[in-house]
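Most newcomers find our protein records easier to grasp once they have seen one. Nothing more is needed to start thinking about how sequence determines fold. Here is such a record, shown just as it appears in the course material:
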Amino acid sequence: MATIKPIPAPARDAKSSGGIGRILRPLLAILVLLLVAAASAGATWFITQRLQQPQGGAPVQLGVGQVPGGQPGQPGQPGQAGGVQGQPGQGPQATPTTFVAPSATPIAVPAPIFVPIEAFTVTLQNADTERIMHVGLTLRVSDEQTRTRLEKYMPEVRSRILMVLSSQSPTAVQTQQGKTDMITAIKQAVNRPFSPLPDGQYVTDVLFTAFVVQ
């Protein structure tokens, strides 16, 4: 009977394996060094670009009436067809805005100036009736010069007012319209220039302080 002998597997060459390992280790070390150097160079380039970027792309602060790339107040032109943009230095015109801070103190209002007139008593009459009218007046003037002048020319002021009062109708002065017409006539009479002065006075209103018709 025939017997089968096992065929032994070929033994690996220990020397061959050891030689390949010695060759691969230096190659791997060199490859790792190259990768580290490339990563370091890339990081250096990236940091350099980041540091240089604000110099070329710094934000531009625009003032009132200024547009990007232009001077304040210069009219701009829209970009032309085909992607051509408006030329630098031109933009839409804007009107400068001025802000005024409110006043810290309120504006002073000038005090009113009054000139009191001594009361008048006159007789009013027409064809049908006769009345006695007692009137107290105060004149309101626009400035100190007018007040000084009226006080200086007071006899003439009273004479002019008395002429107006004595010419009133006894029935008309008791109506609202009659009183309004009398105020207008008194202002016109008092504001006429006093001779020899060339200009008149500035009486702005006539106020009744007493008014009695009997």
